[in-house]
Specification:
CATH architecture of the largest domain: Orthogonal Bundle
Number of domains: 2
Number of helices: 12
Order of helices and strands: HHHHHHHHHHHEEEH
Strand content: 5-15%
CATH class of the largest domain: Mainly Alpha
Largest sheet: 3 strands, antiparallel
Length: about 250
């Protein structure tokens, strides 16, 4: 997205129309879409980057996801609710929402970041969605944000439940691996990228000498869960081992 001039203003209007939202303070919307790399290349720009809004939006999403789950599942214990919430607001899920909202195209970033694939980077997309939520909360309040995000959270919840994404994938994979192969899975970091405040990790899982799956996350723990989940799906899809594959119903 161009960051200046009348064309940029039109693009912001089009984005709001696409998302069916309205900002009273357009500067908040602009800030939510501004990546730090843009300011590194344009130190005199009259806009802040979106990291503080990302921090706020992360907290707002945690609250709204928790509220939704608390009301939807009145009998679930705290531990199960926590696992469900973590599955809903994980990096990959929020990045998917950002793509649906076309936030990647709307991001304002430096040329180097863009050339490096910044518009499709999971961390950037997830951060943009969180920042948008944070900005909308400041601009319109919690009830407005709840109306905006609830349909997205509901869709993510249905996906989580149907695909068993709330299961502790690492524990499930370890149980299968020890029972079927007699070994414990090994997690190996294959890529660590991004600045300290916005790291992105890629981990792969080895069972014996075989790479079973890989995953991405904003921490090694979340990347390991993602890699374990991919491994379980691979096991299930290829009918490896016995009939009691971890995701079999």
């Amino acid at each position: 997205m161009n960051s200046t001039g009348e064309a940029y203003s039109v693009e912001l209007d089009q984005l709001q129309s696409h998302l069916n939202i309205h900002f009273k303070d357009r500067a908040l919307l602009q800030q939510s879409l501004t990546h730090r790399s843009f300011l590194n290349e344009h130190a005199d720009a009259q806009v802040e980057h979106n990291e503080r809004l990302e921090f706020l939006g992360d907290a707002v999403l945690d609250f709204l996801a928790g509220e939704l789950l608390y009301k939807r599942f009145p009998d679930l214990p705290e531990g199960e609710l926590t696992r469900l919430r973590a599955s809903i607001v994980r990096t990959e899920a929020l990045a998917e929402l950002a793509r649906l909202c076309q936030l990647g195209d709307a991001l304002v970033m430096g040329k180097g970041e863009e050339k490096g694939g910044g518009r499709e980077r999971l961390n950037n997309l997830c951060a943009a969605f969180e920042a948008l939520v944070g900005a909308l909360y400041l601009d319109q309040g919690i009830d407005y944000v709840r109306d905006f995000v609830t349909p997205y959270l509901m869709a993510l919840l249905e996906r989580v439940l149907s695909d068993n994404l709330h299961i502790d994938a690492r524990s499930q994979l370890q149980e299968w691996s020890q029972a079927q192969r007699g070994v414990t899975p090994l997690y190996r970091t294959v890529l660590e990228s991004g600045p300290d405040h916005q790291k992105e990790f890629v981990l792969e899982v080895l069972i014996g000498d075989e790479v079973m799956g890989s995953g991405t996350g904003r921490s090694k723990q979340s990347a390991a869960q993602s890699a374990a989940r991919a491994s379980l799906l691979n096991i299930d899809a290829n009918n490896l081992g016995d009939d009691n594959t971890p995701f079999s119903s």
